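User: Continuing from earlier, I have the next pair ready.

Assistant: Great, send them over.

User: Here they are, in order.

Assistant: Folding the first of the pair now:
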Amino acid sequence: MRAKKVFFLGVFAVLAFTVCSCFGESRLEKFVEKLNEECPTSMGEAGEMTGVELKDGNAVVKMTVNEEIFSIEALKANPELLHSAHVLNFSNPTDEMKEFIDELRRCGAGLTYVYVGNVSGNEVSATLTSREIKELSRSNVNSDPDQQLDAQIAIANAQLPVQIDETTVMSKLERDDDCIVYYYDVDDTQFSLDALEESRDLLTTSFIDNLRQQKEQIATKDFIRACILADVDIAYCYRGTTTGREIRFYVPIDSI
């Protein structure tokens, strides 16, 4: 069974880091100019950063995203999730991000991210105001792993359900005690759940290999890191839409 990726919070953290990693000057105007010289900047499967400008007192970062794995419409319908995602990432900054936040604070600037669908051209944006930037620059409190993981799950669920293939729909992502569960609804009139069960060992190995790859990928690596820090395992639950039968595959977090 293939597991189609859904964008988690990690992509927003990576975008913030991309801005910071290009930042080498003390003034806002100069690092915006520096960023634009290096655009477009590839973000792998996520898309690319296409430009940065100063507008209405904000640094505006424009990103073209892959709509096969990033739902613009879902995030437009949940603006508070998108905003919270950015706040959460800036609440737990790297050293480079701290420097970036301090520079924005000194300049009295806010920060806006604009995400543009690579096919539809639809846009969604999120802004951290200059006041929020100032508050974040004063805060030394890092977000805890459980809070980070809850935010990741909320972002993922905002983009579900999603069709995986002709017989499978990913319906939700849920935390169940010490386990994160991916739920897939399978048309069991066309696909044999017995075949899944018979291939349990092979599929479990495949899931482990896939998760190890996700640890290095832009869209998902912060989600995997959050699972590791929160010490939660990962499970895949396939449910027959006709019979209601469930088959689960468990991946211990220490195996990835």
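And the other member of the pair:
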Amino acid sequence: MGFKVEFNSIVRIDIPEDLETGKEYTFENQGSRVYFDDIPIWLLKKDWIAVGEIQIIRQERESGNTKGTFKVLYLYSPDESEALTKMFRRMYGWQ
């Protein structure tokens, strides 16, 4: 018997098209995850496209899911996104 939990420095979710720096947004992911909340972390779309850097403001685990709120710290330019997306896809074996 045990409890599986993942520690993450990446939030990979369906992302609203109209993100703005400085604003807060909610998210939900399947599984019990603990996101770093005292340092900036990466925000990616489900297909590993790099979007920006965020800070987790609130997180809770309930019924096998993780819900929370993040604040957008920085949004990547197209060139930054392209380079980081290639890196993440290479590192995590996504095709």
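Worth noting for the second one:
The mean pLDDT is 92. The longest strand covers residues 50-62.
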